[in-house]
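Risk register update: the risk of archive-format incompatibility is retired. Evidence:
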Amino acid sequence: MPSEAQARITINKLLEAAGWCFTPDANGQVSVICEQRVTKKVYSPHEDLGADFDKVPGGFVDYVLLNTDDKPVAVVEAKKEGIDPLTAKEQARSYAESLGVAHIFLSNGLVHYYWNLRQGNPVRVSRFLPLAELGKAAQWKPDAAKLAAAVVDENYIAVSQDPKWLGYSPEERLLAMVNQKIRLLRDYQVAAAQALQQAAVSKGWRFLFEMATGTGKTLLSAAITKLFLRTNNATRVLFLVDRLELETQAWKHFNAYLGPDGIKTVIYKKQRDDWKSADVVVTTIQSLATRNRYLTDFAPTDFQLLISDEAHRTISGNHRAIFEYFVGAKLGLTATPRDYLKGVNEQELGQEDPRALEKRLLLDTYHTFGCGDGKPTFRFSLLDAVRHAPPYLVNPVALDARTEITTAMLSKEGFAVKQAPDEDGNESELVFTKRDYEKKFFSDETNLSFVRCFLDNAWRDPITDEVGKTILFAVSRRHATKLVKLLNEEATLRWPEAYGAGSSFAVQVTSDIPGAQQMTIDFANNNLNGKSRWKRDDFRDYNTSRTRVCVTVGMMTTGYDCEDVLNVALARPIFSPTDFIQIKGRGTRLFVFKHEDGVIKIEKPKAGFALFDFFANCEYFEKEFNYDKKLNLPKTGEGEGGGGGESGEDDFTNTNPDPMKNVVQSPIGQDGMRVDREMYRERFAAQAKAAAESHAVLRQALESEDWTGVEEFVKKTLLDKPDDFWNLDKLRDLYRTDREPTLREIIQVIFGLSPGIATREQLAAEEFERFLATENVDSTKVRELRQIFMALLLDNRVREDIEAGQFGKIMSVDMGVYQGLKQLGRTGLQQLMAYVGKHVRLADFKRAA
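Archived output:
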């Protein structure tokens, strides 16, 4: 093993390369002292100190680096090549503290770490930092009080876009908003910025914003960037994205929002030689990872604020090391709440289970940004945005569309294909499920049915009636190619004048297609393959793209802004709630369609969007996906790189017609889908459990089943508080079935004392069992008793008619109940009525609105 002395030869050269001088420089200064004594103890010149200075009592610092005033500024602790430099961490800390310095380098000649004692943990570096860069690190002394004192209001970005903004009249402001695209911060964006200001004072310099897709995270990021720069809490900001198309999009927005205020934004890969002249640097995490550019091209001190867009992706895997490399405040942005996969025990998940990766990503995200308790710095969900007055996002109308084959694939039995008998006459069959589609099972006839169903039901542009702009998600690149071909052929047959030439109605936007990134930009800017030719004599110069459908696999799933999308189509099964939320989010943005032709001016707001679901994904996440138990899910599969797989002996290609069997439209109301509501439900459950752990009064009430005491404590402690604004109505919305539960029922579910909220029928059945257990009844008439008992609790109309003695009316409406009443007789009915009136709370059976 090479000795420490050999490691020091390398370290000496690296220190000299960084500008540190072992011998006097031109100014006569020496900036490196070797084997500096830690204590002031004087050693006898005849004393044997041995060959290892580390073991000398009191110790020697391997290297002390000096400032221009000859005072220590950093220490370097060296180890042999075979020893991890981090083993010297505590020893170096002791040396640094004794010398009163904050900067430490740990090295074995091959691996080096830089550590600023005041700002975090050791980070891997490829070189030693020169004195100037150490000075930058020392200069970053964040001032939380100054950050918190800055006023952030709705005009915070507007005054950067136009310094005269505050002096404009209301009419001038409206004109400026149109001509200059002035952006005002929304109320929740202001609240997010203020939450960050407060967190900086109380919790430190790591923040996480959990905000739904389409709620303006980039605009908010620009506001936070300005906040840090203008309060001198940063001199340069790094904005990290995980996709090329998002890099250009972010650069465009930052320049529009902050450029007029003198804040310069550049894309790193386009200005590698002069990126240091910028205030904001935008880059993909992949650009920094390639050949470890973050180590070779950047110093840890180059940025004082890092903003990570789609944080659960940009810090995944080894990318987290890049993120931690830089000194400075850290802000993560995510649309994916940690509460998904809440009950999954990570120890029980295999590496191939998709939820294992997903859980790790979400947990890492929250821990990385200082939110290990699962509570982000600020949260604004899809439901918050939809319910806001006025609304900021829209919910879809879901179209569950199934062919005869996919109906079978979605069933428990699967779609069975009989095979020809073998030589011995034995018959067999292949069974395919939704996981096999376009992987083992192939059917152009099914794809054709998807395409025709989409074209028959697609939401149209509200002004021109052309098929609305659409993003369609395919299983693989090969599947995307098939769908594009079918879409263009069908469009040509249906509308030859508009789409007969150019094969441009649909295009494939996947990573293997040249220019795919630019396609996404052109589609958002309404010039993909030029302008629309639809009814061009009636709508001259209408600003919409000629291409109506982008077929993709993974490129347009996250962070892609295209506000006028009217259709999102899922031609593939989805197993991850994160992916489902992200994909669904492509259509949730608001938009106003406008056209002006001479004296005619038309404006029509977007009323929602169509979510075409060809594989019952909505049903899966509403009814089947178990957030608490381990599921046998498929491997993560091909992603963007998926070519569709190679043919195998168990593959099957269907050539028979596969017509649509059923298309069901379901508008999604303000309550959203279960996948939207789930995070709220678990957030309250976590708070209730935390309260039970920290409050003996609640814990004792639960143990003694003092439900009145439990309810009173919850009402007083958890409800109607400013953080989440919980109230009983909101909780009922989250936990309800076909009825609105009581607070007691909700609490019992949270603490595992009940398997779930009972439906009206389940609750009525429980009440009937109690009736049988406590009342002396005629055992020969239990069937009739149950029938009438259930009717009294579940059917208001029947109960009112019975109470009014309108038995003839009951006979005309429900002959079964009438016959049951006859068999039961007056005595039996009176017994039932008396019991229900005395022991049953009919309000518990009220049907949920």
